[in-house]
Amino acid sequence: MHRILRRRQLKGRLNALFLHDKMEHTKVIELVNEALQTNDSLFLIEVKVTADAKIFVVVDGDQGVTLKECIRISRYIENNLDREVEDYALEVMSAGLSEPLKVRRQYQKNIGKTLTLKLKEGTLVEGILDSIDEDGLNLSWEARETKPLGKGKITVTKNAKFAFEELKEAKVKIIFN
Asked: Is 49:122 a contact under the CB 8 Å cutoff?
């Protein structure tokens, strides 16, 4: 995960409404989206603005996110926020490997990889992400089952569709070969 941290000193009077106001949060999102327009493979995951004027931006990319891109996005945002109004900290980072998937485009980029799902009901499911659509995702996995005839077990392939609303969390399983 790449992290870029920028801290700007207060120049002028403090405006207590800066970044606490929903309009400023929306402004940061707009700036991130503008910065992302120059690279179609990048997309926004999340923007958090804290009460103590810290801005956290998380981006991802179809082929990952480079440190150079995090720096470029960070500079674009800080060049378009009014530094004369308030002191703020800005941190632009790539989505971490161990972080849960948050947007559908992350699922799309991970088709063919193993996911671990935590369902809202409490069940854990692990399988290969076969496909996604607007309603949910399809997983497949192998399971050992008792033979229909005779003794012993056989390996069968199971498939299931999970609605996004059923998911509490989905993570890509990191496999080392």
From this structure: no
- Is the residue at 20 inside a domain? yes
Q: Exposure string (b/e) for 154-171, b if CB count within 10 Å is 16 or more? A: eeeeeeeebeeeebeebb
Closest CA to 126 of 166, 164, 158, 163: 158
CA–CA separation, 45 vs 108, rounded Å? Answer: 14
Whether residue 120 sits in one domain with residue 88: no
Q: Torsions phi, psi of 20, nearest 5? A: -85, -20
10 part of a folded domain: yes
pTM of full prediction above 0.90: no
- Domain range holding 153? 104-172
- Residue range 92-106, pLDDT digits in tens: 999 988 899 999 999
User: Are 115 and 147 within one domain?
Assistant: yes
CB within 8 Å of 173: residues ≥ 6 apart: 113, 114, 115, 116, 126
